[in-house]
Amino acid sequence: MNAVKNLDATIAELIEVGADAVRAGLALASGGNLSARVAEGFVVTGSGTWLDRLTAEDFTVMSLSGEVLSGTSPSSEWKLHQRTYQERPDINAVVHVHPQHAVLVDALGHRIRLITLDHAYYVKSIGTTPFAPNGSDRLADTAAEQAREHNCVILSNHGCSALGDTISMAYRRALNLEEAATATYRALLLGDGSTEFPAAEFSALHHA
């Protein structure tokens, strides 16, 4: 009974995050997918679902080995989530969205700079992968490799994955990654190519 309640609560939180991600401009139409660990393995949004129109029937429960246990057909990106959970046992949620500024700044060959306290505290560091087709083993494997060292990973010319020990933290990281990319973009427009959070302060970071 507890496992059922936990699954229901997890799906409800993912539904809320999906709607908010679209409102925040991090996803458009059926772009992006969300997942979280559950007792059986992980639950992931279904194939072709729109993040701002999710219902409880739009999710798939899968084992960590990749077997569909219940629900609808999973997102084509399910391997991206599966491989990340296999690589990072400390991570309980993956938010994969398509943030415009993060993808653009990376595609233009610029490093996304962490400028504010929130950027530095929540994002900390950013991994990148070369472009690989969506749903491919190559994309899933390269993203999982970057996830060993980073909680935010840019998937070049595609989107990003943000990881967290909770759904809330994964989503908070996705938001701060895009804000850091937007700040970097604006700084570049102003001719600034170097401003970022003081490196010496990273070791003492804390947040209320």
Automatic annotation (TrEMBL):
Q: Which GO terms describe its cellular component?
A: cytosol
Q: Which domain of life is it from?
A: Bacteria
| Coiled-coil ranges (or none) | none
Domain named Class II aldolase/adducin N-terminal is located at 12-185
The processes (GO biological process) annotated in the record are: pentose catabolic process
The Gene Ontology terms for molecular function here are: aldehyde-lyase activity; metal ion binding
Q: Which UniProt keywords apply?
A: Lyase, Metal-binding
Could you confirm whether the keyword Heme appears in this record? no
Keyword tRNA processing in annotation: no
* Pfam families, alphabetized: Aldolase_II (PF00596)
PANTHER family, per database record: 3-OXO-TETRONATE 4-PHOSPHATE DECARBOXYLASE-RELATED, FUCULOSE PHOSPHATE ALDOLASE
Question: Which protein, by its recorded name, is this?
Answer: Class II aldolase/adducin family protein
